[in-house]
Amino acid sequence: MKVVIGHSYFQHFDPKLAEAKQPYPPLGTLIAAAMLLEAGHEVHVFDAMLETSTAGWRDLIDEHQPDAAVIFEDNFNYLSKMCLSRMRDAACEMLAAASAEVDLVVATGSDASDNAETFLDAGADAVIFGEGEQALLEVLSAHSEQRSFEGLAGVSTRVNDGSIVVGENRPNMKGIDAVPFAARHLVDIERYRTVWNEHHGRFSLNLVTTRGCPYHCNWCSKPIWGQRYNARSPEDVVAEMVEVVEAYGPDHIWFADDIFGLKPGWIQSFSELVDANNVRLPFKCLSRPDLLVRKDTAEALGAAGCEEVWIGAESGSQKILDAMEKGTTVEQIREAADRVHAAGYRIAFFIQFGYPGETQEDIEATLDLIRAARPDDIGVSVAYPLPGTPFYERVEAELGRTRHWVDSSDLAMLFDGPYPTEFYRALHQRVHTEYRLRKLLWSVQGDGVDAVRQLRPTDGLRAVRDVATLPFQRRALERLATASEGDVGLLTIDLDREAAATPSAQPVTISTEGSGLKR
After folding, report:
1. Contacting residues for 301 by C-beta, under 8 A, at least 6 apart
2. What whole-number distance in Å separates Cα of residue 479 and Cα of residue 502?
3. Are 49 and 216 in contact (CB under 8 A)?
4. In sequence order, what are the residues at sequence separation of 6 or more whose Cβ sits closer than 8 angstroms to the Cβ of residue 379?
5. How far apart (Å, rounded) are the C-alpha atoms in residues 203 and 195?
6. pLDDT in 10s for each residue of the chain, 519 residues
């Protein structure tokens, strides 16, 4: 079959990410495209990332007249889990355009998994939930053989009487070394290179070594892999790095896993293999504070080439961490920062305000954590209930009509949290202003005169503005710090700290068939 496949994450529609100028190709979409190619289909890709409208999707359909049009979201782009309304609008627009021209229209992704009816109404003939590649292959086979989609595992479809039939859950793939490498040749990688080089002076590409996360953070959405965790072998990952380096020559790698190197010994093996194959590159990845302080993990990660590791620090209040069922401690966060810095690379914190039960004292504890741990970067957000999460179920009664952010910088409180939306937007500004000033101070304290010499004129002007602005931001916060009347308060905690820190019971499947590099 001839297939046009695409995704609906337009960086253009997300101002915060558009300003950052750090785009990555849609890895999940390109892996699905590679599996379609392997199955003998003709494939054409619409890459929304650097586009400004859905016009290119329509043009691609008009040009190739496909048998099937598929929206396959990049499930390795964590923003796809947020179900942002601008991206949903774009997806629905793309489905409507495809349904007018193409015989078979399919949608899959986090939002589609949770809201099949919306996507069927927009024009999809089949909505795939969960891990999508194998289900997509079965949908295409059923269509070519004129069979019904009814009863296919992992597939929702509307039948003749207008009702929606939902198939049973489909088991996730296990030996994922057998999954082909992403079909990067189907998108214009040079457009990405140009953006990166113009704005950052180097070119970064993305890879992934695992699927899923076995931990229990109760606000984290997992509609694709659930609690299942599967990992590629270090040999397979390095084989892809060899291919990527030879074909595209990136200067940096972003490993888009939820957790990088969870299996003991994986990072050490990976480090040896990148050296043996001469593909050592600086990289960024995600981990957890409790993993970074386990044995020599922090040091091994640095030895493997890690340049920056992001962790979900979330809060400096142990009460809030326990309420989130994070399974981590404030002490682990501080120790992780110390060990990463001692190993010579950067650590960055995701911070989340507005979790039910959070008080001014908890907020101040989080600011104290940032001041003490000195992370090299921070990302600040507010509690965001997503369908299918325990957090969503616990606050669902408090949700209004608006249940999604417009874009990733929205910061709207969608439930009756401790304080109103205006407070958290002001807090976001204040935290970043103070952080910029403290980061400048830390740099001067560490490097002295050299740090001052390296300052650009714009850095000095920004610091002067921040110094002048910070007192006003603090006073604005004080005025806005009126507790919400309907605050749901601290939620019931199902998992104690030890249980939350224990990964879901499961075999972590690592394919070890041979040690050679596949091409």
Report:
1. 260, 261, 267, 285, 287, 292, 309, 340, 343, 345
2. 42
3. no
4. 310, 348, 349, 350, 351
5. 8
6. 999 999 999 999 999 999 999 999 999 999 999 999 999 999 999 999 999 999 999 999 999 999 999 999 999 998 887 778 999 999 999 999 999 999 999 999 999 999 999 999 999 999 999 999 999 999 999 999 999 999 999 999 999 999 999 999 999 998 899 999 999 999 999 999 999 999 999 999 999 999 999 999 999 988 899 888 999 999 999 999 999 999 999 999 999 999 999 999 999 999 999 999 999 999 999 999 999 999 999 999 999 999 999 999 999 999 999 999 999 999 999 999 999 999 999 999 999 999 999 999 999 999 999 999 999 999 999 999 988 889 998 898 888 888 888 888 889 999 988 999 999 999 999 999 999 999 988 887 877 666 666 777 787 888 999 999 999 999 999 999 988 877 777 888 999 999 999 999 865 444 444 334 454
Residues in Cβ contact with 290 at an 8 Å cutoff, skipping those fewer than 6 apart: 327, 328, 329, 332, 501
Structure tokens at 384: 């965001």
User: For residues 254 and 252, what is the distance between their CA atoms, to the nearest angstrom?
Assistant: 7
